[in-house]
Structures are given as structure tokens and as C-alpha cells.
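Q: Sequence in, structure out?
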Amino acid sequence: MNKKKFPVPIYLIRHGEAESSWDQDSNPGLSKKGKRQSLELATSLKNYILEEKFTIISSPLRRALETAQPMLKSNNLTFSINKIFSEIPSPGIELSDRKEWLRKIFTINKNELLEPQSDWLKNILTEISNIKKPTLIFSHFMVINVIVGEILKSNKLVIFNPDNCSVTKITSKNKGLRIIERGREFTTTIN
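A: Exactly. Output:
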């Protein structure tokens, strides 16, 4: 008998507002506003997450981990950390130069990335295509853009501006990804 494979829901969640910008701290936690955003997110996703029995993954960076915490605590859930879903790497870039470097990255195409960033992109796309069960991923602006850009077959690195604690819903079926709903957008500041 041929079993029909249903699409697997994957939610890409951008972390809440960080307490400091990318050129001030390489691994900031959440601001007070970011903590409120993560509490609101936990409330809005609670019923659906429990019904679907989602696997939960987080980037190892503090802002992503802290965004996941309210949902994990209130629902007694466990999660795993996956460094592949960390923000775009910037090796050799001084902290004070990171914001300007990132602004330049916003304007380039994927084929212009250097090796550390190109490897980062390839690893994300391999990892996301291997997800086989409902999954929540607490991650970052650029990670979400890489995935959405791949689905849209765009060569641009930045496709849209996912807001803090926005949820971009995609599905995976037979290694093909599809966008169900883009997360809420805003004109972002780089943090």
C-alpha cells in the first residue's frame, strides 16, 4: 500500500529584540521588549505546538535561546541546540566594523559570498531539507532570509525583513520546501 506523505510544518522564528546591537556585543541577550515579545509568542503558539508535537531547535546564541525559554518552560518542553541555525558568520571582522560589514552583505547576491558565509548558507539549506517532522526553529534574520530565498529561487541574500518574534511558516515534503506564510515584517535595524 502506498502511504501518502503529508507536508511537514516548519516554523522559522526570529529571536526577540536584542539588548544591544551587533557591533556592540557578539552575543547579546534579549532587551526588556524582547522578553515581552517572547512571552507573547509562547502564548500565541502554545495550543498548536502541543497538538502537533513539534521538535524544537534553537541557535546557540543567547537571543535565540532566551526567545525559546518562555515556551519551553510553560509547556515543559525540551529542545536541542543546532549551531547551523546561527547568524551569518563574520570571522576576522572587528566588533566595531560588523554593522557596516552586515550592511554590505544585505546588498550582495549569494554567489558573491566568501567561503565562511557560503559554507554557512549551504549548511543551512542541507539541514532544513533534512527535517522530517514538525519543527520550530528559533533563529535569526539572515538564516530565515537564506531559507526563504532558496524557496523563491532568488539569488538575493536578503528577501524580506522578518520582525522580532515573527513566525515564517514553511512546509517540507519529499525534500521540497514551500512557503505557507511569511512572518510579520518591519524595517529592521541590524542588531
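The mean pLDDT is 91.
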